[in-house]
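Q: A reviewer asked whether we had any structural model of the full assembly, not just the individual parts. We don't, so I'm hoping you can provide one. Inputs are below.
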Amino acid sequence: VTPPGIVTLTTDFGTADGYAGALKGAVLARLPSARLVDLSHDLAPGDVAAASHLLARAAPLFPPGTVHVAVVDPGVGTARRGLALRAGGQLFVGPDNGIFAGVLEALGEPPVVHALESRSLWRAPVSPVFHGRDVFAPVAAHLAGGGELAQVGPALAPGDLVRLAAPVPSPVAGGMRGEVVHVDRFGNLVTNLCASEGAEASVEVAGRRLPLSRTYADVAPGALVAVVGSSGRVEIALRDGSAAAHLERGAGLVVTLRPPRESG
Amino acid sequence: VTPPGIVTLTTDFGTADGYAGALKGAVLARLPSARLVDLSHDLAPGDVAAASHLLARAAPLFPPGTVHVAVVDPGVGTARRGLALRAGGQLFVGPDNGIFAGVLEALGEPPVVHALESRSLWRAPVSPVFHGRDVFAPVAAHLAGGGELAQVGPALAPGDLVRLAAPVPSPVAGGMRGEVVHVDRFGNLVTNLCASEGAEASVEVAGRRLPLSRTYADVAPGALVAVVGSSGRVEIALRDGSAAAHLERGAGLVVTLRPPRESG
Amino acid sequence: VTPPGIVTLTTDFGTADGYAGALKGAVLARLPSARLVDLSHDLAPGDVAAASHLLARAAPLFPPGTVHVAVVDPGVGTARRGLALRAGGQLFVGPDNGIFAGVLEALGEPPVVHALESRSLWRAPVSPVFHGRDVFAPVAAHLAGGGELAQVGPALAPGDLVRLAAPVPSPVAGGMRGEVVHVDRFGNLVTNLCASEGAEASVEVAGRRLPLSRTYADVAPGALVAVVGSSGRVEIALRDGSAAAHLERGAGLVVTLRPPRESG
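A: Here is a predicted structure for the entire assembly that you could use as a starting point for your response.
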């Protein structure tokens, strides 16, 4: 199968300084036919968890053979490894710092993992402060052009990858207790509690009990609403506003999922 | 004619949460050869009027057959319809909430409108909170790949579209009175008053009377200047600064266009 | 050689107002096969020096024949010239206001320069406030499609280009004194002092003396560190934080590069 030549980019570089542009140039220099797709350059500096969250939400939708480069890399230039992985038909290139934890969990399939050691694929010399440009970009171009994963370096056991500490929900009397793990641009509070769209349930948050609704506009403007978000996680929103601002809370807020409140 | 396969994206998603990335993946999954073009993901949450303004300015310039997906959609999951339109050689996909009002006025040609009802074109299941990913993106891919507009669902009369309430200028003694309808990134105050580039006129705003100038640098640094903007609307700018900050005003500020002040 | 059809875009337009979208549409209208690459639309309004810095860092990496359009253009519509240049295998289109100073210095090769005068290549009519859309975009499409540079207008001597005033380092007793010329998104203070990666040196800044380290994580979290940045300039960073915020300083801060402190 010919890969589609698509290379997505996820960084905390912003765009104004030229680092994201350099990353793009370095991919195209090696594979002028590559088709670049920005996922984000606006992640908070060093926020590996946010990058992991973004990739989990977006990467699985892309066509097979897409190469996803992710560079949130505060440990650049140290002994931390560079990785290239294949999982669920997608390819990933970036640092071994947990950045792929979310998407690997979302894809639910053990990845094939290789460490980046084949310096012949890299730009030379390699700047110790910009592996995105000098290591990850050319390796991504190699893979997007149909190069073998095994050529990037030796195989690693998936269990050897660095993990991200992520809170997990726990059962409580009559329900499941989780917490807010992400606040999105709309001020929606995204939790780590899974639910099926259409499930009957109620959600306890900040002293309130909300029925699980179908969509944001199922409540009046200005009211809190709990829905199943588009990635299957329970989230708390405020219709036409920001739940995070309204509740003055964010990541870490406890949320409990319970059976629907009994009528009577 | 083969469509160019170009799909533009206009949303209020930001990029950091992965929603824009998911939209891109959903287009490419259905049409791997699609050529994505970001118009903006930085619109204020829920600001349908800003999306309408952006599309009016940018969309008419694209080559025929371009598909413009616009998702500012606070009513997602409710009874609001999804639409696909063709006008001026361009195609548009998004919610029926007025988001296409500006571009349809700019194109000045009655559109061919269809409601999105052909679920076979959509992703399944459809999340009630993310029609961008599950409905609009795959329909856009269908159209960008050369699929028929009529296949997306039944035709609608253009007059049945939801409209945006937009202020219209009114004649006053010796002139035309309009108002500021948009403040851009430079702090320029864009009005709803049309004028031809090169017209001789004067502009009254905030107690001042300014001649209609040709370009920003026709006045001294720090001075207010009225020009005909690049979309043919009168705008008030401050050379090398922000007129909005200088006047401490924005949308709604009254602006009157008059004949040139008589010399005397 | 067939050019790759890549057109990069660098502006201070933001994306929310539709100016960047109009620029993209104007390129694609003339060359539907063009492959657009955003470098940045987030430069501070009117910040020509920041655009120059960005292009210096990013543009040299792109494949030969790439066309870079740069529009930070506070003098739009005045007598300032428009330019198209070729240097180092790359092509550049934009205003003659110093915006290409950094990249021409980085490429280190005299450019071939032409003034934009061939109105037949432009959109008509030309708005005096938006040469990006009406002049630079169609000229870029001409070049990206393989059109001749000489067709855009008459040749200019490189020495006739408008220059940017840029501070230059000066020798001092036992070292070289420069200054911070750019603060990046991470709060790193980028200087105009060049050094080779791996050089032994020490850096004086704000009353401190720091050894030149290899990478950010060579010091403890929260400590200042001096490294050679990815474009070969000395920069001052704070591990896991912002040096600019920590020192409460930015552009203009004096930094002196000296031989390594003698042990003793």
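A: Points you may want to mention in the reply: The longest strand of chain A covers residues 175-183. Chain A is about 20% helix and 30% strand.
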